[in-house]
Each structure stands twice: as C-alpha cells, then as structure tokens.
Amino acid sequence: MKNLIFLFLLVSLNSYSQEKEKIIFLFENDRDTVINSQSDNIYMIEGKHTFKFINGKHEKVEVNFNSVKEHLVTYKEFLKKNKSKKYPELFSNYVFYILIKEKNSSACLIQVEKVWLVEDKMVD
Amino acid sequence: MYIEANGCNGFAQAAAEAMCEGGEVDWAYEVILDSSFVNNPCLYGVYEDMGKAPTFNNYLQNFEPQFSVAHLRLSTSTTLPSTTNAETSAPQNYVITITFNVNNLDRPRLSVARTFIHEMIHAEMFRKLLSVAQHPSIQLSQEQLIQLRNDFPGLYDYYKRWKWEVPEGQSPSSAQHQAMAQHYRDIIEQALREFDDSHPDELYEALAWIGLEDTVTWSNLSQTERDNINQTITDFNSSNSDNCQ
C-alpha cells in the first residue's frame, strides 16, 4: 500500500514538474527586425509577431545550427498546433526561443517571451 | 504646487519644458499646449470652441489625473507631409502627443474640428491601452492582454483581428481606424454638431468618414454611397466658407 501511494505521488509530482515545451522560431535577417532598448530587445518575426528578451531574466546561448534546426517551427505552425486553445492563455504552455543563424554552423539561441505592441503613431 | 502633490513625473517634466518655451498647461485636465499650438489662432481657437462641446470635453476629461495615467500634449509641425492633417503618437513617458500639420489649415474650421475629434479618439484608445500596460510606453504582457480583453473587449478584439493575429489572406490594417469606422462615427458627428450645427446632416455624416477610407466598413458601402460622400466633402472644402487659416 505504501509503495502504491509513493508511486502515485511520484507520478503526480513528475507531471506537475514537467518542463514546458520549447518553441523555437527562426529569425531571418532579411525579413525580421530587432527593436533595441536599453536592456531589452524585442524580436519581430514574420513582420508582426513580437517577442521580448529581458536581460537578467532570459538567457542567450551559442548552439550548433544543425542540431537545432529540426526543432524550428513557423508562427503559423505554432498557431495551427494550438488552434483549439484559448488565446492568449495558450502562450503560458510554452517557453519561447528565437534562433539567429551566425557564421559557419553556429547560431544564437535566445530565450524570449511573447509581448504585444501597438503602432508608434496614428497618421491621418 | 503640482510637483509637490504629484512628484516629478513625466507630465511635470514635459509641462515645465512647454511652459519654459512659451506654451500653456491645462493643469486640471493635465493637457500640455505647446507654444506653437497656443500661438496658432486657428488651432487654439478651434480647441477652445471644441472644449465647450460636451462630447469633445468628455474625452478631454478622461485625461484628468483622477481618471488617467496618461497625459495629453497638443503640438504642431511644419514638416509633416501635405497628405497628413495630423498624427497622434503612442504614449512616450505617459504622454500622448497630437501633432497638427499647420500647412493644412487652409480649410473650413469645421474640417479642422473634425481633425481634433478624430485625433482625440485615437488618444482615447491609446489612453485605454496605457491604462492596462501601466508602463511609460505600451508593451503588453500576456497577463495585461487578458486584462485588456476583460476591461476593453472591443479594443482587444480589433487589435487581435487587425494587428496581432491577422487571419490568413487578410492584410494587416489599422485596428483603431477599423474600430472608429464601425463604432465612433456617430460620436464624431455629434461632436461636430455641437461645434457648429448650421449644416445639413449629410455633411456631418460625410466628414465623419474622413481618414477611415482604408476600412472594411467604408469598403462595404456601395460605390454610389462612397461617391456621394466624397462629393459632399469636396464641395464643402472648396466652398471656402469660414476657413480656419
């Protein structure tokens, strides 16, 4: 009986402590943009989807591009995967990364979080 | 006195700068009037008259300190493109700035008043967004987006559909203009009637459409309706009646 309870607790704890799924978007220099501020960077992919890197909260690591590229998804694929989930709550289920390809086969993997921006100004 | 009560916030700093440069500050509403705005008889005159109109004044009151974290600044420019009557900037250090093109004031006062209320509605939308962001500029986290959805569902819905998650096959567009075309034209018409009620209804209805021609609501009108609106506006602008400058 004790063993059974232990097993139940272990399974429960394990399911609670499961890591969030990682989502990696490719940053393409000729298409995407970075908005720099004093300590944070905002990465805009596919012209409109914005993700924020917060210095001190998120990390950047050097990786081998080939080892990561098979995990890349487009924003469209990400949304399609989550189309039955409530927006914007669905973003809580993931940890997001931006991958920037560098020289040779290296790349920079940057942890980010979703942020929603509005236009700088309205012109009439 | 203000700084003693409120601290040296972004508004106090911007207000002090404006006053040093000959501008005015409406301390009650926390509205900064740049000297270039105060010294322009057309703009300042329309502003004063619009302030007597309840609809415009209600929007102005939303910037009073007890209601808002946002402050309003009215300014001018001589370098805006000729196609631009005015622009409203998103909050910077809690200050929303409406900048008028002083080269585009050779038109009826009612037309300039139309620009005022149109820009004031943009400022109001930015104010709502800032009230959720609670940050000198607008960057919404997931929690804040949920709060926007709860507090201002209409604004949330338009931004989601037209900026943040534009459906495939649909081009991004101005969420604020889409919302204004669908829900705010009556308010624009009302503000203009309160400013000057001497014109036929079709003129107020036509003026309310200006600046909203890139919207779905406009494109849903028939070609005849659009032509009639454009003709009404053209006739009014060329009448040279009561020109502002």
Q: Which structural traits does this protein have?
A:
heterodimer; A: 40% strand; globular; disordered N terminus; B: 245 residues; five-stranded mixed β-sheet; 13 helices
Structural notes for this entry:
The complex is a heterodimer of chains A (124) and B (245). With 124 residues, chain A is α+β, with helices and mostly antiparallel strands. Chain A has one domain (19-114). Chain A is 21% helix and 40% strand. Chain A has helices at 2-16, 65-68, 75-81, and strands at residues 21-27, 33-36, 40-45, 49-54, 60-64, 94-101, 106-114, 116-117, 121-123. In chain A, strands 1, 2, 3, 4, 5, 6 and 7 form a 7-stranded mixed sheet that branches. In chain A, a hairpin with a 3-residue loop joins strand 3 and strand 4 (49-54). Chain A starts with a helix and ends with a strand. The model of chain A is unreliable at 1-17 (pLDDT under 50). Chain B is α/β, with parallel strands linked by helices and 245 residues long. Chain B has one domain (2-238). Helix content of chain B is 55%, strand content 11%. Chain B contains 13 helices and 6 strands. Chain B has helices at 2-6, 10-20, 35-38, 41-51, 54-61, 109-133, 142-151, 153-164, 175-183, 185-195, 201-209, 216-219, 223-238, and strands spanning 24-26, 31-33, 71-77, 86-89, 95-101, 139-140. A 5-stranded mixed sheet of chain B has the order 1-2-3-5-4, with helices on both faces. In chain B, strand 4 (86-89) and strand 5 form a beta hairpin. In chain B, helix 4 crosses helix 6 and helix 8 (153-164) packs across helix 9. The longest helix of chain B is centred in the middle third of the chain and has 25 residues, at 109-133. The termini of chain B are far apart. Chain A binds chain B through residues 42, 48, 52, 76, 79, 87-89, 91-92, 113-124, and chain B through 84-90, 115, 118-119, 122, 126, 129, 138-142, 144-146, 159-160, 163-166, 168, 172, 174, 176-177, 211.
